[in-house]
Design goal:
single chain; 251 residues; alpha+beta; YacF-like; 2 domains; 4-stranded antiparallel β-sheet; 9 helices
Length: 251
C-alpha cells in the first residue's frame, strides 16, 4: 500500500515539508559516511529556508494552544481516559515551553556560524563545495564519524523543539480522521465535503500493485481524485478502470 497526503492549506503544507526534512535529517545524521553528513548539512539549510518565515514559530505555538484548548474540553467525558488526556496535554506543554524559549526565527543561531554559512553560500552551486572552494569543509569531512555526528547534533539542537512540535501536531491531525473505503469509477472520484467542519489534510491509501498514481485537488467544498498510470513513454495517462482505495479526511 502507498499512502499519499494532500494538505488543504499552506500552513499544513509547510508542516508536512518540514516533517519530511526533519525525518531525512534524522536518518542522515545517524549514518557514518561523509557524503551522508554532507547531505545532512544541506538538509539543515533546507529546513532553515522553509522555516524562515517570521510568523512560523508563532503559528506553531498557536496551534499547540488550540489543541490544548480542544483537549481540555473533553475533561469529564466518561469515554475519555483522563490519564491519556493528561499525558497528551503534558506533551503539548513541553513542546510549547521548549519552542517558546528559543529566541528569534528558527535556525537564527546557525546563521551566526560563519563556517556553516560559508558552506550554505556554496551548496547551491553545482560542484560548489569542492576542496579547492571550501578546504576547511573538505578537512571536516575527513574527521571521524563520531566527531562529525557530534557536530551535527550540536548544530541541530536549536531545531529540535520545532521538529518535536510539528511532529506532535501532525500526528494529532492524522489521528483525527476516520478511514473510509471508496471507489473511483472510471478512474475518477469526487466527494462534497461536509459543511461546518474545516478539513486540513486528506490521506489516500492505494494498493501499490495497481500501479496507479492519484492526482489530488481540493478546497473547503469538495475533493477530487483522478487516477493516472505511467506509460512506456514516461508520461502519465488517465486510468479508466474502477479502482477502490482508502480515503481519510482530517480536521
Amino acid at each position: 500500500m502507498i499512502l499519499y497526503e494532500y494538505p488543504f492549506n499552506e500552513r499544513i503544507r509547510t508542516y508536512l515539508r518540514l516533517e519530511q526534512l526533519f525525518r531525512r535529517l534524522a536518518e542522515l545524521r545517524q549514518r557514518s559516511h561523509p557524503l551522508d553528513h554532507h547531505y545532512a548539512i544541506q538538509t539543515i539549510f533546507e529546513i532553515m529556508d522553509v522555516a524562515s518565515r517570521a510568523d512560523m514559530k508563532s503559528d506553531v505555538l498557536k496551534d499547540i494552544d488550540r489543541q490544548k484548548l480542544q483537549l481540555n474540553s473533553y475533561r469529564g467525558n466518561p469515554a475519555i481516559s483522563e490519564q491519556v488526556l493528561d499525558g497528551v496535554i503534558a506533551q503539548l506543554d513541553n513542546c510549547f515551553i521548549q519552542l517558546n524559549q528559543l529566541s528569534g526565527k528558527t535556525g537564527q543561531t546557525l546563521t551566526e556560524n560563519d563556517w556553516l554559512m560559508s558552506i550554505r553560500s556554496r551548496v547551491g552551486i553545482p560542484g560548489g563545495t569542492c576542496e579547492f572552494d571550501l578546504p576547511a569543509y573538505f578537512d571536516w569531512q575527513h574527521h571521524s564519524e563520531e566527531q562529525r555526528r557530534a557536530d551535527l547534533l550540536r548544530w541541530t539542537a536549536s531545531l529540535e523543539p520545532l521538529a518535536a512540535s510539528i511532529g506532535l501536531l501532525i500526528k494529532m491531525l492524522r489521528d483525527s480522521g476516520s478511514a473510509q473505503k471508496v471507489v473511483a469509477l472510471g478512474g475518477q472520484f469526487q466527494q462534497n465535503l461536509p459543511q461546518g467542519r474545516t478539513f486540513q489534510l486528506l490521506r489516500l491509501r492505494i494498493d501499490s500493485a495497481a500501479g496507479l498514481i492519484p492526482e489530488i485537488s481540493g478546497n473547503r467544498l469538495m475533493v477530487s481524485v483522478r487516477l493516472m498510470r505511467q506509460g512506456t513513454d514516461d508520461r502519465l495517462h488517465p486510468a479508466r478502470e474502477d479502482t477502490a482505495f482508502e480515503l481519510t479526511l482530517c480536521a
